[in-house]
Specification:
single chain, mainly beta, Beta-galactosidase, Chain A, domain 5, 2 helices, 24 strands, 41% strand
Length: 322
C-alpha cells in the first residue's frame, strides 16, 4: 500500500478567527463565518493540494473598504456588485462598496454537521444564504437569495474564489474562442482591448491564456466568457484538477489572471474562475445589459455551483446541473 500523502500543516491562516471544518475522506473545507463566510481552505486530501489562495484577515472591511492585495485570499461571495458603484439612483439608495456587501462581515451559522455547513447573511433589504456540502470529491454550494425590502432589487453576483496555482497548471474552457476584456496589464502598463482570442496566443498576449504563467510574468487580466453552454471550467495538471461547474441559471464566467501583475508588479500569484450573473465588473454595467438580474418584492431565488477535485474525468461527473 502506498504511503499516505503528506498534508500541509494548518498554519495557512495568520490570526485565525472562528474556522469551521467540514470534511470527508477526500475533501477538507474550512470556513470562517465571522469573516464573510470566507472559504479559507479547500484541501484535496488524496494528493495534499490546497486550492485556496492563502493569507490573513484584513481589518479593512468598512463601507470604504478596497478589495486589494491584503484582502485577496480565499473564496468570498460578491453581491450585489463586484467593483464599487454609486447605486444611489436605484432601490439600493447608496454607494455599493468594493466587492459588495457580504465579504468580511459576520454571517450566522444556520446548520452545521461533519459534512455540511449552512451560513446566512441578514440585511434589512435582503437575506443571502449558502449551504456547503461535501460529497466524495465534490463540494456543492447551494445559494438562496431573498428580497426582504419593499422595492425590486437589481443585483450582480459572482463566486469569487482566488485559487492557488502553479505554472504547471492549465485552464480548460470548452467551446470558447473569444473572451471580452475589462482589464489587461503587463509590467504595470495597461493595454486597452475589447476582446482577445481564447486561448491565443495573440499580438497582445504572446503566451496562451489557458497556460498559467509564473509570477515573474508581471501580467494581470480580467476576462469574461459569455453564454457558456457547458457550464464548467477546470484548472490543473496530471491528477491534480479542480473543476468548477454551475447550473443553467448562470450563463457567464469571469476569468481573473494575476501573475505578479496586480495591484502593481509584485509577487501575488493566483487566478479566479468566477461563475457570475453578468459579464461585467459592477452593477451599473449590468443594468445596461438586457434582462439584468432583479429580485421582485418578496421573491426568492436559488442556484448552485460545485467544486470538484481529482482527475478531470472524476471531477466532470458533477458538471451537469439542472
Amino acid at each position: 500500500m502506498p504511503a499516505a500523502p503528506c498534508l500541509p500543516t494548518e498554519l495557512w491562516w495568520i490570526g485565525e478567527m472562528d474556522p469551521i471544518k467540514i470534511e470527508n475522506e477526500q475533501l477538507r473545507v474550512t470556513v470562517s463565518p465571522s469573516y464573510g463566510a470566507r472559504v479559507v481552505s479547500l484541501l484535496d486530501k488524496a494528493v495534499g493540494r490546497e486550492w485556496m489562495a492563502q493569507g490573513g484577515y484584513s481589518p479593512n472591511t468598512g463601507e470604504d473598504a478596497q478589495y486589494r492585495a491584503e484582502e485577496c485570499v480565499g473564496w468570498d461571495e460578491c453581491f450585489p456588485t463586484v467593483s464599487p458603484w454609486d447605486a444611489s439612483g436605484t432601490s439600493w439608495g447608496r454607494r455599493l462598496r468594493d466587492h459588495g456587501d457580504v465579504w468580511g462581515r459576520e454571517w450566522t451559522v444556520v446548520r452545521s454537521s461533519e459534512i455540511e455547513l449552512t451560513l446566512r447573511y441578514d440585511d434589512p433589504q435582503f437575506r443571502f444564504e449558502r449551504r456547503l456540502r461535501v460529497d466524495g470529491p465534490h463540494l456543492r454550494a447551494d445559494y438562496r437569495l431573498d428580497n426582504l425590502g419593499g422595492t425590486p432589487l437589481p443585483y450582480l453576483w459572482a463566486l469569487h474564489a482566488l485559487l492557488a496555482v502553479s505554472d504547471r497548471d492549465r485552464i480548460v474552457l470548452d467551446s470558447v474562442d473569444t473572451v471580452s476584456v475589462t482589464h489587461l496589464a503587463r509590467d504595470g502598463v495597461s493595454v486597452i482591448k475589447a476582446s482577445l482570442p481564447w486561448p491565443g496566443p495573440s499580438a497582445d498576449c504572446l503566451e496562451p491564456l489557458d497556460r498559467v504563467q509564473p509570477v515573474q510574468s508581471r501580467f494581470a487580466a480580467k476576462l469574461y466568457a459569455t453564454g457558456l453552454a457547458g457550464r464548467h471550467v477546470a484548472v490543473g495538471h496530471g491528477e491534480k484538477w479542480l473543476t468548477i461547474a454551475w447550473d443553467r441559471t448562470i450563463q457567464d464566467l469571469g476569468i481573473w489572471l494575476n501573475y505578479g501583475g496586480w495591484p502593481q508588479p509584485g509577487n501575488i500569484h493566483h487566478i479566479a474562475l468566477e461563475p457570475t450573473t453578468a459579464p461585467v465588473d459592477h452593477l451599473g454595467q449590468a443594468l445596461d445589459l438586457p434582462g439584468p438580474a432583479t429580485l421582485a418584492v418578496g421573491e426568492s431565488r436559488s442556484w448552485m455551483a460545485t467544486m470538484s477535485v481529482g482527475p478531470r474525468e472524476q471531477a466532470n461527473e458533477s458538471n451537469t446541473h439542472d
